[in-house]
Amino acid sequence: MDLFDFLDDEFDDFLGNISRLKKHREIRPRINHLVEYDDEQFRSRFRLSKLAFNYVLSLIEDDIKPTTNWNSAISPENRLLLTLNYYATGCFLGAIGDMSGVSKASVSRIVLNVSVAIAKLRPKFVKFPSNLQSLTHGFYNIAKFPRVIGIIGCTHVNIKSPGGEYAECYKDRHARWPGSSKKQTIFNNSRIKHRLENKEFPNNMIIGDRGYKNTKYLLTPLHNPCNPAEIIYNESLQKTRNVVERTYGAWKNRFPVLSKKIILHPSRVQAIIVACAVLHNIAIMSGDEHFQDDSEQNHHVNDTHREIDNNLENGTRNNIIEYYESLL
Description:
Blueprint: H1 3-21, H2 33-36, H3 39-46, H4 50-64, H5 76-89, H6 93-100, H7 104-119, H8 122-125, H9 132-143, E1 148-151, H10 183-188, H11 191-197, E2 205-207, E3 218-219, H12 228-254, H13 266-285, H14 317-327
Parallel strand pairs: 1-2, 2-3
Helix pairs in contact: 4-5, 4-7, 5-6, 5-7, 6-7, 7-13, 9-12, 12-14
């Protein structure tokens, strides 16, 4: 054997070793979760009933279907299931891929695309209700607080700081860090404030905690109630306002990804948060309240529902206190 033959043989052996070491693409089997699990098991794993799941799929299927069926393309059904699995666990994307038989890169793309598709449904499913009479009666039945059409509050979703020049903007002031916006600042830049100031909801109001400025259309608790009517006012407002706290709790309980640190880029987080809000409302509309918290008992005051004089200035705190004085 001459030198050239020896080198050729060695090079062939080298290529053979490389070929054996190269990881071959593996298409892992995917479970049919709709068949595999009963209704309760399905809801526990994906946080929606099968009925709600199929409804959501019908709304977004065209937006999330693969452009080709080559190479065992992931179906819209499995794309939605994968994304719901992420919302339900908040696991690392690689772990979600392992459970779903999908690569981490594919999981990342799917979660983003499905989240955006669901978030686009926001105008239909996350909006201010139009039936004001039903709203006021529903809120009144909680703790006898009149004329309420909404409750305002904030909650925090923990994300990984992106670092860099604007890292401070993502730090939570409740953790004694500067940079985040106060409740009032958020409200000042909201469309609902503009609508309230334009008197779109005459003789009605929203309520909030002391993090907001008390106005004619946004009522907050008294700092130092000093008579029975003022005490009842504070208690009634607080019990009514607790609805928003319970709602946030039920929302995060349904989708634990909102309670854990989301380690995706901030540009992707907004779609996930909005998508979870859309899905939560769809679940409630479909009768699936499995993850809802129990409501508190109503405050015991006189059950007579006396309307405040329509001629009185809309929503002032003194008028509401006078209303409670009339019930004593």
